[in-house]
Amino acid sequence: MSGAEGRSPAEAGGAVDRAGLLAAYALPDRETPRVRMNFVMSLDGAVALGGRSGGLGDDADRLAMGVLRTLADVVLVGAGTVRAEGYGGLRLRDENAEWRREHGLADEPRLAVVSSALDLEPEHPFFAEAVTRPIVVTHAASDPARRAALAEVADVLVCGQTAVDPIAMRDALAGAGLPQILCEGGPHLFAALVEVDAVDELCLSLSALLVSGDAGRITAGGREHARRMRLVHAIPAGDLLLLRYARAAPVARD
Predict the structure, then answer these.
(1) Is residue 31 in a domain?
(2) Residue at 23 is within a domain
């Protein structure tokens, strides 16, 4: 889900507009820590086209992505997604930065990468092109020399002993004043969050494409366990469908 934000409503075909999406994706509050996932997927379940998710989206999807970033405190991605999608510095459109200022927020959300191997160089565009100081989330068993090198260009959070603990990560980000977390993948990070029941929302753009091939799902790995979600909205945007699901209330037991 990297790349430029969507164009204006007229350029996006008039099916959706920024103001309507800001209302549709509005948060119930900004204090409760919340993990939102944002993905685009083809009709036959492909998470990428030509190795990248961007090929599945359109202007409406990118407009929604810009709105979701506008509402977030931090945009969280896995290291594999940073490499595959070419993440550099995150900069919102002027009108979205202005909306944030009007609502008492910094102009841009922070950008955070999750990595166990810490196999991103300090010169990578993720760090070199950053508008605000990025965050690296890792664990205590990661290479201390690489942690020190990345600490020169980012704030490093150690969450977990031998693997990144998603709950500790969420709590550490919230403790840093970043409770509204927008996770843009990848599938392994999504699966890790699902496995510990840390996903509060899934914002899914359903692309009107049939892709075939061997592209993966929006989750990869983790233990199988069904977690019920409820539909908040389904907004047609041309041939694309913008879906928002939230965590369902627990079923009452007699």
Answers:
(1) no
(2) no
How far is the C-alpha of 82 from the C-alpha of 124, rounded, in Å?
Answer: 10
pLDDT, tens only, 212-240: 988 888 999 888 888 999 999 999 999 99
Closest C-alpha to 60, from 5, 111, 142, 104: 5
Six-digit token string for 47: 């998470």
Q: How many domains does the chain have?
A: 1
Whole-angstrom Cα distance, residue 114 to residue 164?
8
Q: What's the CA dihedral at 25, 189, 114, 6 to 10 degrees?
A: -40
CB 113 within 8 A of CB 181: no
Helix axis angle, 94-102 to 59-71, nearest 10°: 30
pLDDT in tens, 74-107: 999 999 989 888 788 889 999 999 999 999 999 9
Per-residue pLDDT reduced to its tens digit, 169-179:
999 999 999 99
Residue 193 lies in a domain: yes
